[in-house]
Specification:
Length: about 450
């Protein structure tokens, strides 16, 4: 690497922050311009999380692409959940990755890594794990516990409505779902003369359903639904940190401003209806990945019947070309100067359930400082035990598939590589005796000729 490339490489490693307890402070070692002395886990973190991002800007595309593929291979291979079809893809890609690396690096670079990496993929896991799925479920079970100070405060009307509306539209209740369908049917009947398109119908349903169900909910329905329809108390609790049962520990961005750790990064995968225009009657439904930073942790109190913990986040505008973009190597980048659903308007949706959130770290691009590369962080001590009814790891699996796709995106076709010699960097001079080298080559040629005869 040139001096400038080394500076870019070290800048990424130096600015990276990880969640509390996830890894040692790698920046401490970077200040000393050394990468040795790290524990085994920290080396895995460096290779799987930071090295691909650091190489994006600091090396030639041909070199960075194959090293990113190698890092992605180990990241997927070290996932807590593996599927046979994913292992098959890895097994097929490993020889191609190693073949490309052999053209770029000297033979001394290679060890038994190649054989081990391929043979591991050929192993399968056939044992089935039994587990109990007959536990009694609550409509709003406890999802974690607060950590640190607690502040009691009063919600303003706009924030109260935004929070309550999220709970209403995302709770899993057949009774509430029936009320939604009834409300939509009533809107259609009341607008027969002026037929609404799908976008107008959805907006009207979204705006008026909370007040409508409050009037409809009577004493002859389930108590939980009746309390839910009335809405929470305006008196709520606020936390600076919250430990979710799925293993993540979150902190608000304000509370970690001067810390060496990063626990405020949030990612959520949500099924979203997309409209081409306001007159579109056939919206497309797809899973959209949203990235944000945790701004507030609020516990709603539904009059002691149940409590709901919500995360209020600063969400990046996911419109392509605005707050989110993909680079040529397949990495997603986000820009926090371009936000959406800030909560300033009544129809905004800044809240999510605490259990919906997955933790990510945002690594700053060393050249375009407004852009950050999000990297999904998985809990160290939580494992998927194969519960078909559990959705805890569903979006984590989707993220693994995203990283698996980097194996294809990061690849540079060989026909784009006219030569394999690095330019712009001083070469290495090797002193040797030309005459002795020539005589050695002549001897090898004579030996080969003798074998042919």
């Amino acid at each position: 690497m040139s001096s400038k490339e080394k500076e870019l490489f070290y800048e990424v490693l130096k600015n990276a922050k990880f969640p509390h307890g996830y890894s040692t402070n790698i920046a401490h070692w970077i200040r000393k311009r050394k990468l040795s002395g790290l524990k085994t886990h920290d080396c895995h973190v460096k290779m799987q999380e930071l090295l691909p991002i650091a190489l994006r800007r600091s090396t030639d595309k041909r070199i960075s692409s194959v090293l990113i593929e190698l890092c992605t291979f180990f990241r997927v291979l070290c996932s807590k959940v593996l599927k046979l079809d994913e292992l098959k893809v890895l097994e097929e890609r490993v020889p191609e990755i190693l073949s490309t690396m052999e053209k770029l690096f000297p033979p001394g670079f290679f060890t038994i890594m190649g054989g081990d990496s391929r043979s591991y993929c050929s192993k399968t896991f056939g044992d089935q794990i039994e587990h109990d799925t007959n536990k009694e479920e609550c409509r709003f079970p406890t999802v974690g516990e607060s950590d640190g100070g607690i502040d009691v405060f009063k919600l303003d009307e706009k924030t109260w409505l935004q929070a309550h509306r999220h709970v209403l539209f995302n709770c899993e209740s057949e009774v509430v779902e029936n009320y939604k369908n009834e409300h939509i049917a009533e809107i259609k009947r009341s607008h027969r003369k002026h037929c609404l398109n799908q976008h107008q119908l959805d907006c009207l349903h979204f705006d008026t359903f909370p007040e409508w169900i409050k009037e409809k909910a009577t004493s002859n329905i389930i108590k939980d639904v009746r309390v839910l329809a009335q809405g929470p108390s305006f008196i709520a609790r606020r936390f600076n940190a919250f430990n979710v049962n799925n293993g993540y520990r979150f902190r608000t961005k304000q509370s970690e401003e001067f810390k060496e750790t990063q626990n405020s990064g949030v990612m959520v995968v949500s099924k979203t209806e997309s409209y081409a225009s306001t007159s579109d009657n056939a919206p497309k439904s797809a899973n959209i990945t949203y990235y944000g930073r945790l701004n507030d942790i609020v516990e709603l109190n539904y009059y002691e019947e149940f409590k709901v913990v919500l995360f209020k986040c600063d969400w990046v505008d996911v419109t392509k070309g605005r707050g989110v973009k993909d680079d040529e190597l397949g990495f997603t980048l986000v820009n926090f100067s371009r936000l959406a659903h800030t909560g300033n308007r009544e129809h905004h949706e800044p809240f999510i359930f605490a259990e919906q959130a997955q933790q990510v770290i945002f690594v700053q691009d060393p050249v375009d400082h407004e852009w950050f590369v999000p990297r999904l962080i998985k809990p160290r001590d939580i494992f998927d035990m194969g519960d078909d009814n559990s959705v805890q790891f569903e979006s984590s699996m989707q993220s693994d598939l995203t990283y698996l796709s980097l194996l294809e995106t990061a690849r540079v076709p060989e026909n784009e590589c006219d030569d394999w010699v690095r330019s712009g960097v001083d070469g290495i001079v090797i002193e040797t005796d030309i005459h002795s080298l020539a005589s050695t080559n002549d001897g090898e040629a004579n030996a080969e000729g003798g074998n042919d005869i």
